[in-house]
Amino acid sequence: MRRLLVWVGVTVVLLVLLVVWQLTVASGRP
Amino acid sequence: MVAVVLLWVVRQGPLRLTGLVPGLESVGLLTGLLSADLLLLQVFLLARIPWVERAWGHDVLARRHGWLGFVSFALMVAHVIAFGFERLLRDDSTSWAPLWPLFVTASWMLWASVGTLLVVGVTLTSLRAVRRRLRYESWHLLHLYGYLGVGLALPHQILDSSDFSSDLARRYWWSVWGLAAAAVLVFRIGLPLWRSATCRLRVTSVTPEGAGVVSVVLGGRALHRLGTRSGQFFVWRFLDGPGWTRGHPYTISAAPTDDQLRITLQAAGDGGTRAARLRPGTRVLVEGPYGTMTAERRRHPGMLAMAAGVGITPLRALLEDTPYAPGETVLVYRYSSPEHEIFVTEIAALAERRGVRVVHLPGTRRADGSWRPGPTDDDGVDDAQALRDLVPDLAERDIFVCGPPDWTRAVRRAARAAGAGREQIHTEDFAW
Predict the structure, then answer these.
(1) In this structure, are strands B329-335 and B302-308 parallel, antiparallel, or unpaired?
(2) pLDDT at B432 over 60
(3) Is the per-residue pLDDT at B186 higher than 70?
(4) Does B114 touch chain A (CB under 8 A)?
(5) Partner-chain contact B107 A28, CB within 8 Å
(6) What pLDDT, on the 0 to 100 scale, is given for residue B135?
(7) Which residues pair with B401 in a beta bridge?
(8) Which residues of A touch B138 (CB under 8 A)?
(9) With contact defined as beta carbons under 8 Å apart, do B218 and B206 qualify?
């Protein structure tokens, strides 16, 4: 259970950071 | 596969192959599309879709999933390299600077890069040498990051790729990925929870069978709804405290009834020792039933069941409720010493009641990889001939084999050499 919670925690943190990055830094087409 | 290649053709992929830079871009697009397509197929293969499981069997699906994984990984690496070089050549750059916007700052590209790293991690930990060093549970949890990786790579495919600039293509891609996600949610999570809730399985009793093996009997209601057949297995989660999230695959060892299932397992390892200490009343979550080593595969009236060690469990269930006439079935049972024989009275009763000819083969494992018992290694008898001596008409029987993988392979080899067709031999690896 603890491992699963760590998994969920890592996933949520990663997603939040990526959303912030996409909204603030990321630009236009690659 | 056809759809994505078509997508590439429509986007004039083949025409661009003539020049170096557009060619690299074109190769990058095609490899990316194919890689994503194979990843999608991988998700579908192990989404536990009941009719897919029934058609191929879990062991075959798991092997194909693994094989597709490495092909899709190679294509993904090619996709990244092709676009990296395309960018460097297009910008005529002498430094690595153009790669920074490509892989990091461009829209959705950091998502794709993190997703790629996750898929790389999942693939590397699935290499046999690495996987062997990891606990199954750790490996499995790492493997779950594959879903995240695949999901993170999706926006750059749909929102930025020129391949999906048309509405139809975009709708198609979202739909197939939506279906894959739905299949995983429904069949890997929803259906098992629903089945567990409606069947209300609880541990009824735990009985030692000897030789470090225990049987766990589980009671429930309306178990016919599970559609379980002898020879199949479930993934079991016993709600007996911390660690319940780890599922363990165990085969049922008695013909299923409407209110009872029984599993028999070695009381060793993480799951086994835990199961041996289960208390009556413990609630159980089940995933399944899985497995295709059932009577449905039969094509002949006669059967030959070959079991080694705890591999007797599915065959014991199969012999109990499969239709056959007295004298039509032979059970060959290998175990290392008489103390390691389990179901002694049950097998004797089956032999008596259903007219099964039982051949006991106690003895140690042989160094030469033979299916026969040791200790003699070189007795000058051919493995296939020995099987034919034991069961002269084996070519007219369905052959069910269950035991350690090496032993199962040895039996399969011997049976093939003794004249049995590939479709007659039914085995299942526990490739979980």
Answers:
(1) parallel
(2) no
(3) yes
(4) yes
(5) yes
(6) 82
(7) B306, B427
(8) 3
(9) no
**pLDDT for position B420:** 93
**In the predicted model, is pLDDT for residue B14 greater than 90?**
no
Q: Can you tell me the distance from the alpha carbon of B313 to that of B231, in angstroms, rounded to the nearest whole number?
A: 8
Q: Does the distance separating the beta carbons of A26 and B108 come in below 8 Å?
A: yes
AA identity, residue B208: P
pTM, two decimal places:
0.84
Distance CA B304, CA B308 (A): 13
DSSP state for residue B106 in the 8-state scheme: B
Establish how many alpha carbons lie within 13 A of residue B206's alpha carbon, considering only the half-sphere containing its beta carbon: 20
Distance CA B136, CA B216 (A): 23
**Residues B399, B304 contacting (CB under 8 angstroms):** yes
**Chain A interface includes B241 (CB < 8 A):** no
How close B329 comes to chain A (CA, Å)? 46
Model confidence band, residue A21 (pLDDT cutoffs 50, 70, 90): very high
The ipTM (two decimal places) reads 0.91
Per-residue three-class SS string for B367-378: CCCCCCCCCCCC
Residue A25's contacts (CB-CB under 8 Å, 6 or more residues apart) are: B105
Confidence of residue B425 (pLDDT cuts 50, 70, 90): very high
Q: Give the separation between CA B90 and CA B163, rounded to whole angstroms.
A: 20
Query: Considering CB atoms only, which of A21, A25, A30 is closest to B160?
Result: A30
Q: Are B149 and B106 in contact (CB under 8 A)?
A: no
The Cα B386–Cα B383 span in angstroms is 5
Q: Is B111 on the interface with A (CB under 8 A)?
A: yes
